[in-house]
Specification:
By secondary structure, the chain is of the alpha/beta class. The chain contains 16 helices and 18 strands. A hairpin with a 2-residue loop joins strand 12 and strand 13 (about 320).
Length: about 450
């Protein structure tokens, strides 16, 4: 079959883009032909058909979404409806053209019908699907009703409420229109809300691939990041968004650099630094709030969202590094998210054989931690500070810092920890496991 994986963006470091790459690789191994459809192509080398109206950071869509969910502003209900439907018709026409000209047999919309990010896209995709009869496997990574997405909870018009009911998620479940989610909690809630069956397809990783290594290209990563020779690198490689709760990582680093913990190091001349290298996509002033908080903590933190992207390249004479380059130089990984659909960075850290500092978000406890992974846990309970940032109890932070010092001082303990995690990852979350699931989902081999 010829299969088109569709999303608002591809070729970037967000979780959806990364999973699309893995799906594409496995589907091609199964004998299918795979292309992408997106609003932007990022750094992907795969054949990608661009529909400009799908662009993730479209200013037009941002304005329409604000009027749809928050405040009508200068729109009336009718004028908002008209503009959204006009945009949807454009998306529909372009998608139909791609499906027909490219001979697409199966369409895989990623988050198009679940997130609520782009109303016109959902309407346009559904119209194109109905008119072409193309087979559909919806890949729902994130849902509008999740607690971390309150911006999608209410609509400004009755028409908007009907759109949410009809398109997020479409109540269709048959052999030509199937649904998959990425964790067991979403599967249960999905069934409860919509009465529709879904298949759980967890995030996976290629554990059969060669290990990431230091080489001539990435040999300058630490210096380009601005690190000193004696600094221990703690890497936060996720996007910078509210639910990632990166302030918890800052709490850990701030405490580690106090005399209480420095004096416990075998080499007391060493210091800890937190590097935040992901895209800045927070809402409600999160990034600015985080930076202010880091300043107040006097934690040693480097923030650089221009240094690491999907793939290596030279741009204007300077190096852009891949995510994998960053992992090679990390001594520890922080993953303090309070809510995740699954957890790409967790698996990346497992593959890289780097110890992980982690907040035990719900999906981790339900689908991942039960496999027996060994992590430095910040616990499973959190609260909010007066400034809106997340906090956990001080004992949890102290316990993590004690664990970090133990690992830095005892490399054999660290080696056994990461090797155990690697073996569990390759057993439960490999591309081979994904292939088993996709055979069932797509039903027919090429």
């Amino acid at each position: 079959m010829k299969i088109a994986l569709a999303h608002f963006r591809v070729g970037e470091t967000d979780g959806v883009s990364l999973e699309m790459d893995k799906w594409a690789a496995v589907l091609e191994k199964m004998g299918h032909t795979v292309v992408f459809i997106a609003g932007s192509r990022g750094n992907t080398l795969r054949q990608t058909f661009i529909i400009d109206e799908l662009y993730y950071k479209s200013k037009k869509n941002a304005g329409l979404s604000s009027a749809f969910y928050c405040n009508l502003g200068s729109y009336s209900e009718e004028s908002l409806k008209k503009e959204i439907l006009q945009t949807a018709e454009t998306i529909e026409a372009k998608l139909i053209d791609i499906i027909k000209k490219q001979g697409i047999d199966m369409l895989v919309p990623n988050n198009i019908f679940s997130l609520g990010h782009d109303v016109a896209a959902a309407i346009g995709f559904m119209a194109a699907i109905k008119k072409t009869g193309v087979g559909v496997v919806c890949h729902h990574h994130d849902f509008w009703w999740e607690p971390s997405r309150p911006q999608y909870f209410k609509q400004t018009t009755r028409w908007g409420q009907k759109v949410m009911d009809n398109y997020f998620v479409p109540r269709i479940d048959n052999s030509h229109f199937r649904h998959c989610v990425i964790n067991s909690l979403a599967q249960k809630e999905f069934s409860k809300r919509y009465g529709i069956n879904s298949v759980v397809v967890p995030n996976v990783f290629d554990f059969s691939g060669p290990p990431w290594q230091k080489d001539d290209y990435n040999s300058t990563f630490r210096s380009d990041l601005g690190l000193l020779e004696n600094e221990i690198l703690i890497l936060q490689a996720t996007r910078v968004t509210n639910r990632k709760a990166i302030e918890l990582a800052a709490d850990v680093v701030a405490l580690l650099n106090t005399r209480r913990y420095i004096d416990k190091l075998n080499d007391r001349n060493r210091r800890f630094v937190l590097a935040i290298v992901g895209l800045h996509e927070g809402i409600d002033g999160y990034v600015e709030n985080l930076i202010r908080y880091i300043g107040s903590q006097e934690a040693r933190v480097v923030i650089n969202d221009k240094l690491v992207e999907h793939t290596r390249r030279i741009e204007d004479g300077r190096k852009i590094y891949s995510l994998w380059d960053a992992y090679v130089y990390a001594d520890l990984i922080t993953y303090p998210s309070i809510q995740e659909g699954w957890g790409n960075q967790f698996l990346e850290s497992v593959f890289a054989r780097v110890p992980i500092v982690l907040f035990e978000y719900d999906v981790y406890r339900a689908d991942i931690g039960v496999k027996g992974f060994d992590v430095l846990s910040l616990g499973a309970r959190y609260d909010f500070r007066e400034n809106g940032l997340v906090c956990v109890d001080s004992k949890s932070v102290e316990r993590v810092c004690d664990g970090i010092i133990n690992l830095i001082n005892n490399q054999e303990i660290a080696r056994r920890m990461v090797q155990k995690n690697y073996e569990l990852g390759s057993k439960y979350f490999s591309l081979e496991k994904l292939e088993e699931i996709l055979y069932g989902l797509f039903n027919v081999e090429a």
